[in-house]
């Protein structure tokens, strides 16, 4: 590999790293909402998995504690899945066109 090609690859890698950092910073601001119990429990979190808000319908407060705990857990899991999908979508655009081996995943 010629010296110029290597320098070009290094420059491209640095630009990609800068773009990934910007995308990660933006994802920290993106909020997703997970739900369970047909929307009776809602969890809002960022794509960096910081929970911002949990909303529980008042009708559930007099119900079974175990059921409420299960609904909260399900809503959190739903929000996590949505955050992961949003993050993957955002980051996959940055690696499109790169000559990465099949199955290679960057740390995001």
UniProtKB/TrEMBL annotation:
It is found in: Cytoplasm, Nucleoid. GO terms for molecular function: DNA binding. Belongs to the YbaB/EbfC family. Transmembrane segments: none annotated. Residues 85-108 are annotated as: Disordered. It comes from Solimicrobium silvestre. Residues 6-33 form a coiled coil. Residues 99-108 have a biased composition (Pro residues). Pfam families: YbaB_DNA_bd. Homodimer. This is Nucleoid-associated protein S2091_2376. InterPro entries: YbaB-like_sf, YbaB/EbfC. Its main location: cytoplasm. It comes from the Bacteria. Keywords: Coiled coil, Cytoplasm, DNA-binding. GO terms for cellular component: bacterial nucleoid; cytosol. Binds to DNA and alters its conformation. May be involved in regulation of gene expression, nucleoid organization and DNA protection.
